[in-house]
Amino acid sequence: MKRNWPVSFAAILIIVTAALAQNPAEPLRTAGDRPIDISHIRLDLKVDLPKKTVDAMASIDFRTTRAQNGFALDAVGFEVKGVTLIQGKPVQVSYRHDGQHLMIDFPERWAENEKGQLVVDYRVREPKDGLYFFGPTKAEPEVPWMLWSQGEPIANRYWFPCLDHPDQKQTTEMIVTVADGYEVLSNGKLVSKKQNGDKTKTFHWKQNTPHVSYLVTLVVGQFDIVREDWKGREVSYYVPKGKAKDIQRTFGRTREMIDFFSKRFGIDYPWDKYSQVVVEQFTAGGMENTSATTLHEYAIHDARAMIDSDPDGLISHELGHQWWGDLVTCRDWSHLWLNEGFASYCEVLWDEHHNGPDAAAYNLIHKARSAVRDAKDRPVMDRRYPHPINMFDARSYPKGAWLLNMLRKKLGDDDFFKALQVYGTEQRYKSAETGDFRRTLEKVTGQNLERFFYDWAERAGNPTLEIHVGYAPESKMERIIVKQTQPGEAFQFNLPVRWQANGETSSSWHEETLPVREKEQTFFLKTGQPPSQLEIDWNQTVLADYQIHQGRELWLPQLHSPSVAMRVQAAAHFGKSKEPADRELLAKALKEEPFWGAGVEIANALGESGGDTCRDALIDGLKIAQPKVRRACADALGKFPSDAKVAAAVKELLKKGDESYFVEAAAVGAYAKLRQGDTVAVLLPWLAKASYQEVIRSAVLRGFGESEDLSSLDTLLSWTKKGKPTPSRIAALQGLAALNKNANPDDAQRKQ
């Protein structure tokens, strides 16, 4: 799953689970027993969209793994009509269904390794989870008739009987009958599509290689479809009617991604086809169902959205899952990072390949921030959790990605990717644990990685490093004191340092690795003279919270380092300063910065520092060609409340407009924070502006809450109603909450 980070279910899950306190007294979680091994599931389905029902027949081929009198399947909320056991001839068998499990009784005790087929006749009626029906209503007449499934982590049990656990894999088959005019998408190959005589159509999909139950997908709807080819395999795109014109812009890099990942991992794309389907009101950014990824409607980008946004992070994440999560699946949710951390690192790999090393470095910067902030309290590999959903958080996603990045830097590209190929090949169509991955790395490289995995996968948090840098003239050496201030024992890692002496060329660096093993250590570099530049972990090898204490003479050149990570670190340092000279430095750096990501960080630092120099630099920054930097400048100007010059500049931007939706939205949000008497009047016309992901309207509605002006109350209330776009409804609710807090409403208004 891909969280909406700016976007397989996870944005909403991440927000929710981050807010949930996890109880360390939760029971120990391990993979469950498997009394049977399922080899194949066939589902014969008749879908009635208006009635929100599916009449179903599940045929399950299995063998017993031990002698037994019966077994249970996950089956939640079904209306079971009958159960037949086939071993030679069909026999009606007794069963019990408690609403959660379907328990089957054999007519007599079966021995180990006996094979049979179970046929379950049942109906599902608008299930509470797993399968979602949509259609037009009086309040929302534009909603299309549609059905889609979402199985991860344990929701497909709501619409077909299965062993709904990631250590059970089987082939699957789906024969689906729907009304004329509708398309059906599922896993694997389309075996047949036939027209029936009763104004219905039947689609037959078959997935011939095994996968887990949560990756089984069913989508029914009306779509524009474009099909392409990659090495003889279909690559297809299903989008809502009328959106075909956006397919190439949105998905046009998919085949290049498939080719890139196949070569990078040394394993060709492993499934019969790759489809991407954009559905109505999906609950996540995307979901990596085997060979058929489901995506949220905002995956589709129009031309203006692509100016400073793209869906490649989402698309590369879900595509990466086709190897890491689908081909090789975590055996238990404790090892979820083997799915989500790998897919999150695929975003970095694609950035590195397609957008260059600076983009990949900036991607890692964002992931590090999230991992350090949100993955403090529990380990990546966690056997105690209330529910599988609780594992879908920053530990599995950005910290998991960083774990892989650290391994890559530690082992080197050749050994890392060779080991990844071996791991994917040996665990192909299997379920794996963290130990399987570690042992593969050790086998390929000859390195013992037990301590690495203990520090980064099995214990919570990361190092908090307080680093003091200074020259010792008596020894002519640079002294570096490294303190680990986090609670508990020391992490063990190698910390790279590089430096330059005065007069050396910009490409000439001395490098050394500091073996950090204790909570406090002092290291000396034989520099011979005070270095003109010194950089710690410039190549992003250690996930840590860095607090660097060094002289201004070292911070100054770092603002122009060849390393994006170092420039961003220096910008943050100077952003904390109120010194006029430091503000001038940042203003100059904003004009000269060649990479947009570092430009965004410099703009943020200018907003943090404040003062007239920073203000003027940000106003000038509204003219910078790179729209992501303009957006950051507009956003940072919101930190200058009651400043008439800022208000005039932002108002002028709003008057002229910008080619970017996001710049306009940032300007709207900034103006709302400036405490101007005309805020509501200035923002109100922007409610008429449609935009990608409703970013402009959402900024207006949140801005009304910032304005402290109760004249916007009725407008905010009207935008919470059904029929308004979902992002705008959410923003209106946020605006109401802010207005209630900030604007001192009377009792009647508070009640509204």
Describe this structure in words.
With 752 residues, this protein is an alpha+beta fold. Helix 4 (312-321) crosses helix 5 and helix 7 crosses helix 8. Helix content is 35%, strand content 26%. 47% of the residues are buried. The strands form 7 sheets. The protein has an 8-stranded mixed sheet, with no helix packed on it.
Summed up:
The chain is α+β, with helices and mostly antiparallel strands and 752 residues long.
Question: What is the topology?
Answer:
Elements: H1 10-19, E1 36-48, E2 53-64, E3 68-74, E4 79-87, E5 89-92, E6 95-97, E7 101-110, E8 115-125, E9 131-134, E10 146-149, E11 169-179, E12 183-186, E13 189-195, E14 200-212, E15 218-221, E16 223-230, E17 233-240, H2 247-251, H3 254-265, E18 273-278, E19 286-287, E20 292-295, H4 312-321, E21 328-330, H5 337-355, H6 357-374, H7 395-411, H8 413-426, E22 430-432, H9 434-445, H10 450-456, E23 464-472, E24 477-484, E25 493-500, E26 510-516, E27 520-525, E28 533-536, E29 545-549, H11 552-558, H12 564-575, H13 580-592, H14 596-609, H15 611-621, H16 627-636, H17 644-656, H18 661-672, H19 679-683, H20 695-707, H21 713-718, H22 726-742, H23 747-751
Parallel strand pairs: 1-11, 17-18, 18-20, 21-22, 23-29
Antiparallel strand pairs: 1-2, 2-8, 3-7, 4-5, 4-8, 6-7, 9-10, 10-15, 11-14, 12-15, 13-14, 16-17, 19-20, 23-24, 24-27, 25-26, 25-28
Helix pairs in contact: 3-4, 4-5, 5-6, 5-7, 6-7, 7-8, 8-9, 12-14, 13-14, 13-15, 14-15, 14-16, 16-18, 17-18, 18-20, 20-22
